[in-house]
Structure formats: C-alpha cells, structure tokens
Queue: 3 jobs
Job 1
Amino acid sequence: MPDANQQPLISVENLSIQFRTSEGLVTAVDNVSFDIQAGEVLGLVGESGSGKSVTAKALMLLNAENAVYGEHSRITVNTGADTIDVLSLQRPQDRMQIRGGLISMIFQEPMASFAPAMSVGSQMVEQLLLHTTMTKAEAREHSIDMLNRVGISDASKRFKQYAFEFSGGMRQRAMIAMALSTKPRLLIADEPTTALDVTIQAHVIDLMLDLVEEFKMGILFITHDLGVIAQTADRVAVMYLGNLLETGPVRPVIRTPSHPYTRGLLNALPRLDDLDAPLTPIPGDIPSPLERPGGCVFHTRCSQAIAGQCNSVAPAVVEVQPDHRVACVLRDPAGGRV
Amino acid sequence: MLQFIQFAITRAFMALVTLLLVSLIVFSLMEMVPGTCAERYLAFKNTQGQQITIDDIEAEKVRLGLDKPFLQRWTGWVGRVFFKGEFGDSCILRLNINQLLGDKFLISLGICLTSLVLAYLIAIPVGIISSASKSKWLNGSLRFVSYFGLAMPNFLLALMIMLFSTVYFGETLTGLFSKEYRDAEWSVARVLDFLSHAWLPIFILGWSATAFALQTVRALMLDESGKLYVTAAKARGLSGGKLLWRYPARHALGPIVNSLGFDLNRVFNELPIVATILTLTEAGSLLLESLARSNDQQLAGAIIFLLTASIVALNFVTDIALAVIDPRVRRSVMGQG
C-alpha cells in the first residue's frame, strides 16, 4: 500500500486536451486531475471513446501532432531528485527521458506493438542502449534476463526470434519485459489483456503486479473491464466523455458507487452467482465528442438526471468519503433542485 | 543457408514453369492470328507481283512444318527457345529472328532497367524523407512534380525536348548511335557513343517512372508510419532519423521491392512510343512494327516472350530479395530455427 504522505510519483492537474480537426477543435479530455503514488495501481475505467488512451498518451506526449493541451494543464513527474514538467518538454532528447526511461507503456495489441521485421531482442537492446549506460553485450544479457523473469523459457533463443513466432500471451509478457527493462517509475498499461485469452489474462496481470511490487513503480491501468479493476487496482478513476466522474479507493467505489454512471457500469457486468439476472446495459450510446452535452456530460443517458439542472450546470466535485470524490449534483449538498 | 538455396531453387523452378505456361499462351496467340505464316508470306509475295497457287501454299506449309499437330509445333518451338535460344525465322522478312533482334532487345531492356533503377534510387530516399517532413513547401512541390510527371504523357515530353534541342542547339537528339557507330562492332567508343544518346530515352522513361514510384513510396510510408509499432517505438524513446529509418522505412522496403516487377512492365509498355518518336531502332519499335504493319507473328511472339521472360526474371529476383528483407517470408521458407 502506498504511503499517503509521500509526494505523488506523477501528478496530473487540470488536464484538457483538444484536437484540431477540419471540423474545429474537438475536446477529448476535459479538466482531468489525478495522482499516482509509487507502488500504487490506479485503474482508469471507461467505455471506448471516453478519453482514457488520450489521457495516458499525454503522459508520454504521444498524442498526434494536432493535439492542443489546455493552458492550465500540468503533468509533473517526481523522480525523487527533481520534478519534470512533462508538457513543457520540447526537444526530442528531453522527451526521451519520459519515453521509455521514467515511463513505459504497454499496448492492447502485443503483436502490432512489436516491429515485425526486427527481432524482439534487437528492440529490447535498442531501448536499453538509449536509456542506460550499458554496453551492447550487457544490454543483451539484461534483456535475456528480463525475458527469463517474465517466464519465457529458452530466453536466449527467444531473444533472437520475431514477434510473429511468439504466442499471444508470450508476446505480451515479452512486452512487459521490454517495458520494465529500463526500470521505469510508472508503467502505463493500456488494455494490456483485452486481446488475450481469459486464461492467460490472469497470468499476465499477476506477473505485472508482482514485478511492479518488486520494482516499486506505479501503474496506470486502463481498461473497460471493472472486474479486472476490482482485483488489480488500489484506486479507480471512472472516465466518461473526457471527464472524470468518480475517483476513489477501489473497494468503496465498487461497493458504494456514488455516480449513476459507475452504478450503471457495475450493473452491466454479467453475474455468475445469479445466472437468471437480466443484464442491464446503460441506455443510449456514448455521444460523439463533436456533440458534447452541456452541463453534466452524462445527463443524456442518466436515469436520474434533473431537467434544468444537469443539462445546464457542470457538477462540482465533492468528497463523499475520504479520498472518494464524485462529480454529480445528486451527491452535492449545495446542489440539488434549483 | 541450405534451406535458402532450396528456396531459391524452388522459386527458379516455379519461374521456369511460369515461362513454359507463358510460352504456351504466346504460341497459341501466334497461332490465333488469322492466316498461317505460309499464307501470309505468299500473300506478301503476291502483292509484289508473283503468281501464287494453292499448291505453292501447301508446299510452303510442309516446308515450315505447319502441317504437324499443334502440340508438336509448340514443343519444337519451346525446345529451340529454351535450349538453343533460337526463335526461328521471321514470317515476312525471312530472316533469322535472333539476327534481326541482335542487341536490340538487350539494349531496350537495359534502357528500361536503368530508368527503373534510377527512378527508385531517387524515389526511395525522397519519398521517405518527405513522408517524415512537415514542410508544406517540400510536400507541396513534390506532389506537384509527381502529378506533373504522371499527367504529362511521355511522348509529349519527348517531343518538347526534341523541339527545344533542335531550335536552340540544332541537334535532333534522335537515334541511339551516331552514324559511324550504327553498324560497328561493340567497342569502348561505341559504348560511349551509345551512352551519349541513351540518356534521353532513359530520362524520359525515368521521369514518369520516378513520379509513379514516388507516389508508391509515399503511400507505403504513410501506411507504415501510422502503425502501432511506430508509436510503441516512440514510447521507448526513439525519435528522429533513427525512428524513421529503422521503423517505418525499414518496413516499407518489402512492399516497395514488391512493386518493382510490376513497374518494369509499365516502363516497357511506354518504351515503344518513346522509341518511335526518338526514332530509336530498338526492340520496342520493332515490336510495334511487327504487330501493326507486317503481321509478323513469329517476330512479335519472340519479342513478347522475351519481355515476359524479363519480367518473370525480375519477379524471381524480387522474391529472393523479399526473403532477405522480411523475416516473416524468410521464416516461412526456411522453417523454424
């Protein structure tokens, strides 16, 4: 468990991201703030198009060229020795330290994230040569060692192979080995198990958690699967259409969800203990970012929306329990009917 | 390594089979032309004032072996082509096709291959660099140049260059050899003379080939640059030239090599028109002539067969090159390990 008094490893404040398109500025992320402590797993949950990946990519400045960051947005990484203002990094050599050095990322599609015509080993060595003072031979040895650590047998042979010669689970384990080889402070895992078989999912998640525990790093775990979050994360942040609707420690959020959207997500989960229970999906579709609803972004699909209130006034963030925050007028003592 | 040789041999064998099939198609096409070689030749004689009887035609047919069954004639033709490199006699001119073609085919092939190689030597680096460049000026002007190259017909470019050089330099720039070298033996001086003439057709053919190749390279680069492995490489800290050349460029190379065989065909198709305008007496215009004017199916068949053989040969080379470049192809031919 993370130490609450510690300075956070990474701190995101008022992050807003818009994309310049032919149809004007499109808002992808709106005023999002969260912290991640060393050793903590933050689960970022939301449907496709909620801005999870854009938020994650912002931490490494990986968004496309047409991304515009808000004026008051700040992302700071605390290295222990000093703090880095991520959004101010301009030169490639400055950006390099947050890309693959302090922060590593694993993606949803392990097959597509390896270059097909380069051996897995050469891609691992390349990263180590960029970020460490290792020689080529040392980097090679360390890479094979890392492959061993993630449970890939015959690692020195696998080192020379290509991603297409690996099985799906093995590719994702190799990806984890590569991501952790530079001992980053933060690991961003963008739906790392979505493309894997259910039986392999648990292995990969356990492996990731073990290594993170050992290396004392933080994880930003992105998924649309609340079930995975319940077992993996220390804290959870629920995102919808670019806004954070609810954040808090994982148990209180899942046991006593405060936002109608979080409740909707939990009700939509299939239940194995009651097979006759009907699935209750959240009605409607996530609106296009081009037509962001005014007021609370969720009001168009919310069964408890208050006419004249939710569609016009953006809800304030209130703390319902220690560290458990929600942006909903129903939970705001100062809100309610006008 | 052994498996690689095995792969090369298999591919060479498949190329041979392709060639055999091609020869069958070409030979059938030659047969489909209305009238046989004997009839055509004698009809040609007829126009020159000779009296021809049915018996003459029959005798000529027997002399040429046209009375034998199709398969026997085809195997005979193919056998001579494959084992002796002999295409037999031309229908109308009654000359040995090999002598008639002489160096012409090799010269045509040389011109086409040179313009193709030059086109790719320019298009690959320029296409790769421009795909990574954000300069609107560079990309705009490249787009203009390549559309211009695609849109402007080769014959128009050839005519314009000839007109320009005739008006301003008093030189017509036609032909592939100066008079004194036209029928001379090959020598250093003749090669130099050839080169001093050949640059023009090479330039004209290379012009549109470069424009075309540039479009191909740019499209392939854009395709590769958008792939996840490039983002993943960026996320590992790679940037700039190292990212560009090792990731998208390295991976676009396979499809680029793949497009070579197709392009040679295109350049070859354009050669006859350019050759006619520049009055180059090489195989391209000879093909046009044998098809259009004299209906000489033996000569036309020989040229078409040689052309297809060069494309099959180039495809064989690109297959081997692909196996060297792309580990997925390599592993699929060499097995695991």
Job 2
Amino acid sequence: MFELIGVPPQALFGQLLLGLINGAFYALLSLGLAVIFGMLNVINFAHGAQYMMGAFGAWMMLTYLGIPYWGALLLVPIVIGALGILLERLFLARLYHLDHLYGLLLTFGLALIFEGLFRRQYGSSGLPYTNPIPGGTNLGFMFLPWYRGWVIIVSIVVCLATWFMIEKTKLGSYLRAATENPTLVRAFGINVPRMMTLTYGFGVGLAALAGVLAAPIYSVNPIMGSNLIIVVFAVVVIGGMGSIMGSILTGFGLGIIEGLTKVFYPEASNTVIFVIMAIVLMIRPAGLFGTPR
Amino acid sequence: MRLKALALAAAAAALTATPALAQYTDGGIKIGVMNDQSGLYADLSGQGSVWAARRAIADYCKTTKCHDKIEVVFADHQNKPDVGSTTVRQWFDVDNVDVVVDVPTSSVALAVHNIVREKNKVMLNSGAASSDLTGKACSPNTVHWTYDTWALANGTGNAIVKTGGDTWFFLTADYAFGHALERDTAAVVEKSGGKVVGKVRHPFPGQDFSSFLLQAQQSKAKIIGLANAGGDTTNSIKQAAEFGIVQGGQKLAGLLVFITDVHALSLQTAQGLILTEAWYWDQTDANRAFSADFEKANKGNKPTMVQAGVYSAVYHYLKAVHELKADGDGAAVVAKMKSMPTEDALFGKGQIRADGRKIHDMYLFEVKAPKESKGAWDYYKLRATIPAAEAFRPMDQGDCPLVKK
Amino acid sequence: MKNYDMPIFAALIAILLVAPLAIYPVFLMKVLCFALFALAFNLLIGYVGLLSFGHAMFFGFAAYVSAYTVKAWGWPTEIGILAGTGVAAVLGLIAGLIAIRRQGIYFAMVTLALAQMVFFFCLQAKFTGGEDGIQAVPRRPVLGFIDITSDIHFYYLVLAIFAAGFLIIYRTIHSPFGQVLKAIRENEPRAISLGYHVDRYKLLAFVLSATLAGLAGATKAIVFQLASLTDVTWQMSGEVVLMTLVGGMGTVFGPIAGAAVIITMQNYLAGFGEWVLVIQGVIFVITVLLFRRGIVGEIAALATRLTRGRGEAGHIAGNPATTS
C-alpha cells in the first residue's frame, strides 16, 4: 500500500469527505451572503447571528412547542426569514440611499444585540440538541454518520435550486435587472422594494437553515455564529462578492482545502482560508468568479 | 436577591455589638468578585460566584460575631486581561477593595495576580486553571483555591491508566493553556506506565472536530484526551458521539470539564466521560442544602466547583481577617490564612500550603448514562477519591520562589 | 467660516491637564489611548472615505512589539513605543499595498481578512505568549529620568503623546495633501483625471493611520503593562468603528468624544454584566439610523443651523465644520 506524505490514502479520502461536508456549511452561508450582497449591496454582518438564531430556533421549537427536527427544518427558516423581512422594512430599507457602509454598520449592531440577548437568556455554555438520524455506515475508509450525509445532500440541493432560480428563471432575471437598474425595472411595473425585502428574507432564511442543520452536530450557543461569520466573509470575498455560483463552488472548495490542512498542518487550518484570500486578491482583486466593479 | 442581601446585612449589623475597628481600611471589609459575567465562563462563575460570596458572609456571620461592614462588589472582566487589570487597579486605588475573588481565565488571573502583589492586596482564585499561579509565578498575596491544570491532569490521567486506559491520543487546543494541560497529562500517563501514541493540535476556537476525531480514531488509542476547554470541549464530545467513537471502544477523557458543560451536552451525549472535579453538589447533605438555595437564586442551575470554591475561600478569608482584626496588609492576611487550617461546610477540612495552593481531596467522576440518572442535574457517579496529599503538585516540583530556602 | 478648532483643542488640553484631580488617571490614560486610536482610524474613514475593518492589527500588534522589546530585551520605554509604532507602519505599508486596490465594502473585507491573519499569527507566535499575552511589562523611566511608575506622571506623558498625535493628524488634514485626500473621497475619477496618483495618496494616508494606531497600541501596552490577544481581535476593529461612528466620522473631535463615551460606558456599565453587548448594539443601530453625524457632528450641525439658519445634508463624512 502506498502512502502520501505519511498519510494512508484511506485516511485522506475520509478527510476529503469531511472537508466537503464542512464546505456544505460554508456554501450555504456564503450563498445567503452573496444573494443579499448581490441584490441589496449590503454586507450582512448579522448573518452569523441569524445562523445562530436558526440553531436556537430548532432548540426552542423542540423544547417549548415539541416540534421535532424535521418540522423545524421547514419552519425555522420561515420564521427567521420573516424576522429578516421585518428588520429590512424597519431598518435596512432606510439606508439604501446612503453609502453602503452604513448597511454593514447597522447589521453589525444588530448582530451584537441578537448575540447579547441570547447570552442573557440562555447563558453561554450551550444547549443540547439530539441528533435526529443517529448512526451511520462504514465506508471502508471511514465511518460516515448518516447525518453528515444528509447535510451534504440538503446543501447541494438548496444551493443548486437557488442558483437556478436566480440565473435561469424569470423571477431571477427581474432580480438581476433590479440590481443593475432599479429605476428602469420599476418603470416596467415591478415592485422593486418588495423584491429587495423578499430577497433579504430569503438570504436570512438560508442562514437559519444552515443553523438548523448545524444544531445536532455543533454546540448550540450564542457565540457559534460570530466565530464562523469571519470565515464565511473570506469565502465570499474569494469567490467574488455577489457571484452566486462563485460562492457555492468556493464554499465547497475551501472546505476541502481546509480538510487537507487539518491533516498536514492542523494548527493552520483556521488561517489557511485567509492566506488563500490574500493570494487571490493579489492576483484577481474581484475574486475568482467576480466581475470587477 | 438584593433585598435578601440587605436583610442579611441588617441581620449582620444587629449581631455586631462592638463598633468598627480602625484597622480595617475604609472602615470595613470589601470583597470584589471578578469573573466572566457575559461570556463563555459566565455559567460556571458569573453571578453564581457573587451569590456564593454573599452566602459565605451570611453563613460566617451567623455563627461568629463579625464586622458590621462587609460589602461585596462585582465586575465583568469579559475574559480580557486589559479589562481585568483596569478594573482591579480602580478597585484598589479608588474603591478600597481589599480582596479579589474568583477570576477565571488564566490570562486575566495572571494579570490580576501581578497587580495584587504590586498593591499588596489579596487574590483568592477559584476559577482559573493555570498551575503557574502557585508555580513559577507564585506570590505571597495569592491563594489558588479550587483546582489547577496539574490536579486535573493528575486525577484523570492517573486513574484512567490504572484502570487499563494505557494508550492515549490527545486532542489539544493550540494555545498555551491547551499545551500545558496536554504536557501535564502526558507526563502523568507516562509515569503511570501508559503511552502517548499521538496528538493533534486544533486551532482555537474550533467548530468542526470531525477531522481530528477521525485521526484519533485511526490512532487506535484506547483513550482520547481532550486538552481543551469550554465550547471546544463540548463540540468535540458532541461530534465524538456522532462519529460513534465511544461505541467503537475508545473512551473520552475530559481534562477540563465542568458540570455546566455536561448539562449543555445532555447525558445522552456525555455519558461515559471521565473527569476530575473538586466538588460535586450531590455529595453531602451540606452540599445539597447549599445547592438547593443556589438553584433558586440562579436560573435553576446547580453550583459548579468554582462557585463552591468561592464560598469556601471567602469563608476562610473572613476567619483570618477577623482573627487579625485588620485587612490592610494583604501579605499578612494570606500568611494568617496559611497558618490556620481551613474548614467549612462545603470543602470540609483542608489547608493552604506555603506556595499558596489550597489542598483538599479531588474526585474522579464518570458521567452517568441517561437511565442511571434519577433526575435533573444527577450527572456523576464517583469512581475514585484522590486524597489531598496526592491531588496536587508537590511543592518541590513547582519552582515557586516562596518555597525555596 | 471662522475656525474654532484650535481654541477648542486648547480648552480640551486644559481640561485634561486638571482632570486627574477628579478622575482616576489610569482610566483617563485608557480613554486617551483609544481616542488616539479612533483619531487614526478616522483619518481613513473621514478624510479618504475608506472603512478599515481591521485596524486592530496595527493597534494590537504594536502593543505586542513594544511590550516584548521592553520586557524581554530590556529596551527603554520610549524606544519600545517607537519600535511598536515603526512595526505598525511597516505592517500598514504591506496591508495598504494589498488593500487600497479595492474600494468601499471590498476594502473593508480585505482589511478584515488581513487582520485575521495577523490575529492568527499572534496566537501562534512564540513571543506573544499565546492567550496569556505578555504580562508584567516594566514601566522604566522615560528618557532615563521621567519616573512613570506613578500613574500621575505617566498620565502627563500619555497626554503629551496624545496631543502630538492629534496635531499630526490635524496638520495632515489641513495640508495640501489632506485637500487631495478629500478630493479623492468626493470624486475619485476626477482626482485621477486631474493627474493625481490617487493610489499613492491613499497608501500614504493608510500608512499614516496605521502608524498612529500603532502609537496608541504601543502606549497602551506600557500603561496596562500587558499586551494581549484582545487588542488584535476583529471585535476590537469593530469597537474603534463604533467609537468613531458615535463621536462623528470625519469630524476633528468626534473620535475623542466617541472614545470617551464608549470607554466610560464599558467601565461603568460593567455592573450591568450581561447587558453590555446589547446596549452597545442598540447604540450602534440608533446612531446609524438617527444620528449618522455622531455626537460632535450633530452639535456642529446644530451650531451651523443656529448661525446660518439652515442645515446641511449628512453623508459618510458629513460635517459642515471641516468640509466647508
């Protein structure tokens, strides 16, 4: 049996697969950010907090209402998405005429509020959430828990559906046109502000969906999002801000690269994404899939 | 809670017949509880520690004639050394605080430790893990009360090797604290005849540990030692359950796990975990009584060993200060504390060594399976008691300058 | 319009000279360090229109350098502070070369990512002492004779550093160089068409801002006798944005007011424990929605309205007092 730099190939397959699964989370989260940024030109700093609220939402539905995981998977993104719509109507919509930096600052403030409130209410050591599909299968080179397989399927389906909706349907073409020239699109009788509102709600819903998916495997605590958000930002920047396919592919790709780093140089596995980002920006300032603006 | 404190203060005042003594700085005793009130360690220290300190005062004054002005103030250090050091300077320079209590998070504890020494006050540390506080950084003004990295490593490492867990793989948080925990445990494992077959250092803070767990699984080690803390530990344990590590025959050893972490994980996930603690709420009647009151005042949580340690430390401090009838000279107070044997309802009898280490029995626990648990917070079964004399690092191995002659 | 900046500055210094009589000097030093940090940050956002979301890298890394050189190598305090400042300048040059090629939100993201790299470097590197930081940094006499172990003495030194930093920034924004920066902020293509090497101007401003942020961090390390990871986290970068925003972006005194308000809040709200984060978030949101000009900006606008009888529209650096 041959070895690759001291690591048996079976182990490597396992790590690649795990990387891909992590990439599924990056892809879902960066997709939401990319959709919001692409349509609203807002960097949604509250994305991490909304992801956290998704995980808490799943826990709250189970604990207070007795709704199991499968119900939460559907309901939580809708509820949190609706909350997103409310936020957009109340706050974000007032800032579109201003410099885009204000959107970033506002959502940063919102993120602090959400995180603070959840800390206040639930403490910070985290809450338990039972794995809905325990067990797994032995693939020969590794043990694959059923749940991780489920995560990757959901992620791929949702990502592709979103891409299809935005790039290939009539609704998507309205959206893209509205980003390019809102005044003209409005002249055709399309309600642009409502489209923006729904887009934000949709992006937030994606974050919440990722949160529900994360609840059974990651610790459900108020700071789970604030550590992740920075990595996801880097993914979006590498992929090219606002590029839908770019953020999906980069999400999965970086998950794999990170997975490999965990084998060969584990200490650097958090940093590698930022190193890649710096390199990409030096060579292609608009990101891998972005168009310069 | 505030009302209750007022009532207690009034009761304390009523009990005290003698007028205030001049030797007390600022005419009274002022205790500052400094810990994490909002972050990662808020549940295991936080307001619970403040409650424990107030309770210690009330209990002390119930049995002994105590000074009529004993105050408790508290602050959130947010786990940031600079916030901690600013606050503690202000406490000493402006607010006349005499003693700082709790101070979890090693980096903040070391910063406060230096200032306390410079200003000749007292620190009673319950929350921090670093064994340096009574090792090479030891000071005549600090008492380290509840636990430290050495005691945890010793308790968990030793006992597990003795029961057959002789091959280890470490999952270590890649920062000084994780390294220290790994180093101390590896030394214990090897000394008791075990072997360390591998280790992986994960970035801090981590989120996904599956990759590292897979490496641990492939190492075929019997024991996977978790040399990390807080969210990193709970995440590793949660994901180990998901990947069937424990069903696969390997065991997890949590090197720094508090009961609040077990609560966060639920027994379903944490069962079988082996860990060392200094105190558990369900051990004695006194502990249970204390915990029942604690629970009512603290969102239904049971106290951790850190909070119980705050109680015990404040209680002993009050004894020493009342004996001296002065609280101004921190080093003198600590010297007095070291010269008296400790005794209180929660920690029983014990003593403080010359290097500032409080010693008492430590306990090795195993987390119960869900069906063994009889109710809320019934989480541990006792596997071994580590007698006080063996539980902590021998003084001659700590490089504490106070000990060398 | 008559410029009141210098009289106000003189009054401010006069107040600060007597302030330690009433207020705890260590607290004042903290405010001054953060005020200088916010002033440095404001130079970019307020006068070049660049939002850096990674300024903590300069502040925190300079703190490490000065703490390390003073403690481990026994360098004199003033040389240690200068070393920290110098390293921050170099770091600023490197980061600037990468970041200034982007604008607006892209620029913010790039600086954020670079700051994360610096954070991980600080976490990994041996000399930073990991999460314990560098502790017990000695306060040696400055220039060999100014004893700074006394907080009061040290306070006046920090005040001098702060005043020097303020004057450097003030001179910069009122120099021809500063005028070009403002022109770039208002209309970059036009500045290019007028023949200015826009990138060179931006880079220079970025390096200057990084250097002064480094000066603030290096001084803070000596004040608190420690350098820690807190100062390089992205939360610290967020905090300086908050200070500047609350005080008033693009105003001369805004960052000082903002730093004072935020630090005071952190100090005195500490008793609220768990609510601090929420309160900070609420202030962020309210400021962005209702008081975009910040404390000083709103006061200046009010003053202008009273004297001229009409207000001016606010924008990212909307302050009538300095832009007119």
Job 3
Amino acid sequence: MANRRGQTEMIGLVVIVIMLTLGMLFLAKFALQEEPAKKIFTRKGLAYSTMSAVMKTELECYDSATSNDPDELKVQADLLEDCADVVRFNTAGDISCYGYDSSCDLLEEEISILLNATLGEWHKEYLFSAEVLVGTEPLTVLEIDSGGCATSTERDSSGLFPIYVTNVGLIESVLYICE
Amino acid sequence: MKTINKKQQRKWGIFPKGRRAQMQMMETIGVIFIFFVLVLFGSIFYFKFQEISFQNQQEELLAQKAMDITLVTLFLPEIQCSQGDAESEDNCVDMTKVRAMNMMMEENPRYLTDYYFNIFGYANISVNMVYPINYSWTVYEFEKTGIYDNGTEYSAWDRKEATYFVITLRDGMQGYGYDSAVSSLFLGNEIIYSFGYLKIEVFS
C-alpha cells in the first residue's frame, strides 16, 4: 500500500516537472526570438537611401560674406574628391567656401546637420565614413559618428559608394545605421 | 499489552480509521486545489500572451502597410524623378511634380477619393525638405475620421504608424523668376539636388 502511494506521488512530481519544463521552454522561445527580418530590411533600405541622398545633395558654397549667389557643389562629385585630395596630399584644396577652412570642414559640418535632422531625429545612431585607398592602407578622409555605432553588432550598412579620382585613388564611402 | 490513551494517539499520529480517511480526503483536495491554481496561472499567462501577440501582429501589419505605401510612393510616376525616356532615378522626388500634385489635390479633392484612396487608403504622405531650407509639402492626406451627431469630426483611428525614408529632392525650377533687366520671366535650366525625407503615416 505504501509502495503504491509512493508511486502516485512520483507521478505527480513528474507531472509538475514536465509542466515547469514546458513553461521554461515557452518563455525561452519568446525571450530568444530573433529580430524580425522586415526591421533589418527597413534599416538597410534606410541606410542605402540616406547615403544615396547625401551623395547626390548639392551643398551651398559662398565665396564671401557678402555673396548672394552660392555655388552648388555636389557632395560626392565635387567636395569628397577635393577633401580626399586635401587629406592625401596635405594641401589647401581647390574649393574654398566662406566660413570653412576646407572642403573637409564644410562636408563634416553639413553632413552632420543632414544626418542629425533625419536619422538623429528618428533616434537612430549612425556612422558615416569615407576612406581613400592608398596602396593597402586606407586613409580616413571623413568620419562622422553619432556615438555607439562603431562597436554595435546590430548595425546595417548602406554598402560601399566608391568613386575613383585620378591622382588621388579610390574613395569608398559607407554609412552604418544602428538602433 | 499496554493500552494508550487518546492524547497519546494524537501525539503519535495514530487516528481512528474514519479520521484517517478524512485526512486523506483533505490531502487530495489540497493537491487538486494546487493543480487548479497552476492551471489558472497557466491560462492567465497564455491568454495574456495571446492578447500581446495579437496586438504585436496588428502593429506588424500596420508597419507592413506603411512599408508598402512607402514603396508605392517612391515609385509613383506622379512624383518620381524622370528624364524623358531614360530610367528614373532611385530614391528621388521631382519637386516640380510634387508642387503640381500638391496643387492638383487642393483644387480637385475628388481625385483623392476616387483614385488615390484606392492606392494609399487611410494615410498621410508628405515630402519634407531638410536642406537647404526646412519645408514640407503634403502629397496626400486622408485621415480616418468619424462624425459626431452634432456634425463635428473626430479622429477614428486606433493606431498610427509613421515611416520615414530619406530621399533626394530634384528641383529644376530653382532658377525660375523675374528678370527686371529684360522685364521678362526666366527659367533657369540648372537642376538642383536637395536633401529631404518622405514621411508616411498610416492609420488603422
């Protein structure tokens, strides 16, 4: 009789253990759920479209404080080329805009404003980087970091936006967006 | 043989037969009670989870809808950058077309209900310029509203999902103006690329 009761208690114990295990598995399934693929796609798409828009944007460059008619300079085609030249050969560059030391100065300030007004407003961290490939060593031309994106593992890239500039080399720009 | 009194029986856990059955009954009731409490907790947890899961699903559907509308808007011929028969530019909006569409929607609200509502549904779409100036143009506006008995309108949506997409704004009308020297209008052929974003809000 005592043996029978022991058996029944054992079964009860096993049922409780099974229920607890199922509960744990249920919890673990939702706790370890992966990031939805759509969210990653959206971030990737946003990184690409932002980079593409930044590269095409024309920034205003005034000759002097009294000038009313600014020159419109393309980020990728004019300013980045000139900035790479400034960084690579340590020259003053061909582009001179009122209020800025060089094209690099203008790029850094204006791209920061553009990214802050969009990605920054939407609470997204970003890292914009442009490098010129000289031999095997990449030389940093421009780096704008909102903070926290350089080491983040959950980040998506716009992909490389390369341009080749004669006498300077290959300039590769990339934008990373992270949460 | 030594007999023991009732006090000693209680002390050593020796009960009469009827009393022992009562104790076992109590034990069984206790076990069943605990079992039902566990089942109740499980059920509460499950239904709570189902409720959250349903809400998440609704949110995901709305986000999906916002994403779909964003893609439709990006490739909408009415505002997309084009150059004759050449392939249209990616992530680019022609400001001349945007201004024309904005004007058309204001002048002919029937286009909104008869044609564009079938494409976008309850949504707000605006093109926002960030550089060189901050400005916004509404391309489409159709908020889900209801009407009270007294005739006043109210917002009839439960959820709103906003999606943003950074775009290039191409403007070929920047050189448009009046030249006083020759007393005539001029149209500059210079195309300017500005920076902005598309804001899409969907309602459910």
